[in-house]
Design goal:
Blueprint lengths: L1 H15 L9 E9 L8 E10 L3 E3 L3 E6 L16 E9 L5 E9 L6 E6 L2 E6 L2 E5 L7 E5 L9 H27 L1
Antiparallel strand pairs: 1-2, 1-10, 2-4, 3-5, 5-6, 6-7, 7-8, 8-9
Helix pairs in contact: 1-2
Length: 182
């Protein structure tokens, strides 16, 4: 009986220990609107930035362009493959806001080029047509994509499961003793 209480106490204490905190990658939506001039096409560009680190400067694991004006011609959005990324730094503060960006990527055939905050310019170009705003970092809207929470089992559920297993173990021990005595 003492052994069972010791096991239960150990299980309860270990279930109350907090799990180590791991940095969760943050994902963002972005959008900017270009005018003529400086670009050759007016319109809005939208997309997503994946895998940034909160409270640090880091590179995106992926950038997807979801939409841009039809006047840019093919390739059609969404575009996810940039074969050459020359700049890839984003700074995210501790409250989950992008505070600086410097991203330049293009396909090897230069059919699509994306710039965010590079030399105070935001733009996308395809086949000689461009959507540009030269408003620098402030010319792009960055919105955090709120992650969905994964529910964790409560301490009560874990404790109840442990007590149930302990009760079954105790019942099994009693039956073994009865059979051994008979």
């Amino acid at each position: 009986m003492k052994r069972m209480i010791l096991l239960l106490a150990t299980g309860l204490i270990s279930s109350m220990q907090s799990a180590p905190s791991h940095a969760t990658p943050l994902d963002f939506m972005f959008s900017f609107t270009g005018t003529v001039p400086p670009g050759s096409v007016a319109g809005t560009v939208t997309g997503e930035i994946f895998g940034l680190t909160e409270g640090a400067t880091s590179g995106a694991t992926n950038v997807v362009v979801d939409s841009y004006p039809a006047a840019l011609q093919p390739p059609n959005p969404p575009q996810t493959v940039f074969s050459f990324i020359s700049e890839n730094t984003f700074t995210v503060n501790s409250t989950g806001e992008i505070t600086s960006a410097n991203f330049v990527a293009e396909n090897t055939d230069e059919s699509l080029v994306l710039r965010l905050g590079f030399n105070a310019e935001n733009g996308i170009g395809a086949n000689g047509a461009t959507v540009i705003n030269d408003d620098g970092f402030g010319g792009v809207n960055y919105t955090l994509i709120t992650p969905t929470a994964t529910p964790e089992p409560s301490t009560g559920t874990i404790l109840g499961t442990g007590l149930g297993f302990a009760a079954l173990w105790q019942l099994r021990q009693r039956r073994r003793r009865r059979w051994a005595a008979a």
